[in-house]
Amino acid sequence: VQLQASGGGLVQAGGSLTLSCAASGNTLSYYYVGWFRQAPGKEREFVPAISWPGTKTGYRNSVKGRFTISRDNIENTIYLQMNSLKPEDTAVYYCAAARTLRGDYDTTGAYAYWGQGTLVTVSS
């Protein structure tokens, strides 16, 4: 499965963005999907994840109440709604997918497929 992340951009602190992760080559049916981010000089870190068909979600503590992950199983797309953005949310955001997780859902090693990333910049 090939993943394409989009929707990044420049936003002021307190603003909102919605990221999309579209799949091609295969549907995302039965796949777990997660979003990760990587700031300059830092390791890639987990943000949220969603199960199939969307009944379970998990979030990084620092984004709980601000970010919402969802999936449109007809459009074969995963969304990340980001509200109340902070400068520390600045990073390249990646979506990742796995038919079967190879570890804990909040770890990069659990996912077999990765998109190319989309840059989110939050100015103060």
Specify the structural class: mainly beta
Order of helix and strand elements from N to C terminus:
EEEEEEEEEEE
Number of helices: 0
Backbone CA Rg: 13 Å
The share of residues in extended strands comes to over 45%
Number of strands: 11
How much is the average pLDDT? Answer: 96
Gap between N and C termini: 37 Å
From the spread of the alpha carbons, the general shape counts as globular
Largest sheet: number of strands, sense, barrel closure: 7 strands, mixed
Instruction: Report low-confidence residues grouped into runs of 5 or more.
Output: none
Percent range of helical residues: under 10%
Overview of this protein structure:
It contains no helices and eleven strands. The protein is mainly β and 124 residues long. A hairpin with a 6-residue loop joins β4 (32-38) and β5. The mean pLDDT is 96. Helix content is 0%, strand content 49%. The radius of gyration is 13 Å and the shape is globular. The N and C termini lie far apart (37 Å). The strands form two sheets. Strands 2, 4, 5, 6, 9, 10 and 11 form a seven-stranded mixed beta sheet that branches. A four-stranded antiparallel beta sheet has the order 1-3-8-7, with no helix packed on it.
Protein traits:
four-stranded antiparallel β-sheet, 0% helix, mainly beta, seven-stranded mixed β-sheet, single chain, 124 residues
Question: Quick summary of this structure?
Answer:
The chain has about 120 residues and is mainly β.
